[in-house]
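Two folds, back to back.
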Amino acid sequence: MTRLARVPCTIVTGFLGAGKTTLIRHVLENAGGRKLAVIVNEFGDVGIDGEILKGCGIESCPEENIVELSNGCLCCTVADDFVPALDAILARPGVDHILIETSGLALPKPLVQAFHWPAIKSRVTVDGVVAVVDGPALAEGRVADDLDALAAQRAADETLDHDDPVEEVFEDQIACADLVVIAKSDLLDAAGAEAAAARVAQALPRAVSVVRAAGGKVDPAVLLGLGVGTEDEIEGRKTHHDDELDHDHDDFDSFVVAVPEIADPAELTARVERAAAHAGVLRVKGFASVSGKPMRLLVQGVGTRVSHQFDRPWGAQETRRGALVVIGLKGFDRAAVEGTLLALDTAA
């Protein structure tokens, strides 16, 4: 079977909160006639990103074409999760392109290497690897929004033998990229945009296109159809983890908080901001029902930077429910965070 007969796959990688889901949602809403499928690699047993994408409700990517994997980082569970997920998607007729959203902790290289597996190599190819980076964080000299959480993450992992694992994961993602998207560019002034671009350029080992995005809005024609066949080049893309047979993410934990219907989106946003300030919390995201409003409220927090917007109407047969997922370092104070989100803490 020739490469032209294989279904192209775009791998979207990037650290927690960089803007991967927002970018993919924009692609789904502007598919230009393509029939798309998505594999979403959540962290833990939660499905918030999948829910956000399924909320698009568009013909180009029906709900059954969105597959959620929550048993661990894709680059660690290729055989158990990724190959069966591809099998399920490829069994559906007419899929033109597959988008794969990795978890924020994933290393792209092992996933790309999996495309050589006999079970799938004749059916799919890596159209390209897209690395999404947090522009405002990079402008301030960080790879993600919460520097204290990153420092705690490094200190918590006794198995690491290098000084700055999060920096190295960031650099590995850039090293494997065929395209880099500097997200949240609307939050950057000219000096910040220049600093973010310089940090990306410093990490790039070769000439790769870099584009800026606000609200995840990048023309799908820029992202899809790169035609790289990255699996054929990946061995030549050197990363910090080339000598490691495996890696793990046992220092992270997550849980979901069911949120009762709210009256004021700003008040919920304030609660999320306070929850994100707890030691060890890396990310809070999810959705809520607002009394008297027909639309679902989407909430996304990276560090203490929180945004909210109404993303879609509630379905006629759908239960109006709210849920927030909290992702943090192993051992963070779950009870305190949950109390803050539910306004049960004394500070609320």
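---
second:
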Amino acid sequence: MSSLRIGIQLTKNLEKYKYLLSVLKSEVISTNGLEYIHIPTDEELTKIIPELDILTTYHIKETSFFHATNRLKWIHFGVAGLEHSLFPDILKSKTIITNASGVHAGPVSEFVMSAILYFAKRFKDCYEFMQTTNWTQWEVAKQMVQLKGKTVGIIGFGSLGMAIAKKVKAFDMKVIATRRLQKKVEHKKTVDELIPISKLSHLLKNSDFVVVACPLTPLTSGMIDKKELSTMKSSAIIINIARGKIINEAALIKALQIKTIAGAALDVFEEEPLPKESPLFALDNVFLSPHISGNFPEYQHDVMVQFADNLNRYLAGKDLKNRVCKKRLY
């Protein structure tokens, strides 16, 4: 029996590759019959892909996948959002696709809580106090928000949404969440109302903080527009840690300028890097970060552990975790 050829395109650095391979080997039940191949570049991938059975990578170009054969049974992506890799040929193919959903859940949910606290506890005003030395105790104090009893609306209740809900509940907050395949309203341990996406306006109307945590698909692109923003409370904050194109950025900027909503924490944008001339930089009611909410030093290690778990399942003939539906695109 010929060996199973596994391509690993997660780093150009040979030393880092050796480390990641050692992590993989320590997690895989048996390495018998497995051949690992370091793929440093897209050019190398294009050459080697006809001979691969399995590939783990962050992205794949159409030009590389064009050279794949029926031998390529499975691609594991080390990221959660796959909108740039789900082109027609890969969707029509029989190649199984899995992603890294869940790897980011801890750091992203911590980031969301940080954004909520930034606005609720007026950290911007505290920073200004340090800069100006002006004692503004009562001006700031009257704007402080107690989180207990406030409502967080979470759009998208996958691994990210669940992790956010769990942390939010630790602050005695209420949770309303939408899930695309949800058919009826349910009550769960970490969710007061789990509702169908068709009831999005109910979430927007009743939330003090709205968190966008769903994947970018043709159905969610531009989902938050002028109408949705005007449905929100004027005191509400919107937080986007998913993808920039889920929110109409021009409509959001307008809503922030005229105070239709109170503020926004944005880690993702329609165009990245965010252009230096973006009006967002001139607003005083935003918190901006350069797409870093899901990053942490152990990221590649955790991706490799997750891949190893799925590889064990693959070798045992079990269903793979995080399998991407080629119709729903997540």
